[in-house]
Amino acid sequence: MNAQRASFGSAIAGLAPPCLRISAVVLAAGLSARMGGSAKMLLDVGGVPMIRRTAQNVLAFAPTETVIVTGHRAEDVANVLADLPASCIFNRDFAQGQPTSVAAGVRALTQVCDAVMIMLGDQPLVTASDIERLASLYARLELESILVPFYESKRGNPILFASRHIPAVIGGGLNIGCRKLIETRTSDVYRAEMESDVYALDCDTPEDYARLLHRLEKMQ
């Protein structure tokens, strides 16, 4: 597994701050309720399923550990990720919403880390370089312990938070996916204004998917 992880990171070696250990949790459990009957994690994005492209980008950043949380169509999602150096865990409570998947993924982490990154599975345009920019900003924080990216005032993802928050996230005392996080944890949260809109893009509807494919064509 370590050898595989190294191969994914080789093209972007040295991106992560050298002394900062970041573990990644990728959320891929949702019902895709607004996608018109399609399981969005399995939709084709540049020749590969969406969740696989997202996972490959995360792995290229070379996190300390990567956990992918499944739920809806769990077996199919796990199958398209089977050869990647990441752990797939099933959230039996996935239908109750994203916070349960965040807690399940964080609970499944086994390696010591300094920070945890929560990545959405429908963010295939967020590259390892984009993640590195967030990690570099996080590494320079002095007072805040939660970093949330924004683009033109729109809240984005992934979110990074200090490992000391792990017990609160697992216990439900800190909802990292909650939009009220900024208001309730003012002293802990750093709003990172980013130059790229990829952090604020998601893929919930067929229209979103069409825009994603159009954007991908322009990038290639």
From TrEMBL:
Keyword Cell inner membrane: no
Official protein name in the record: Molybdenum cofactor cytidylyltransferase
Pfam families: NTP_transf_3
Domain MobA-like NTP transferase as annotated: residue spans: 24-171
Keywords: Magnesium, Nucleotidyltransferase, Transferase
A GO term, aspect molecular function: nucleotidyltransferase activity
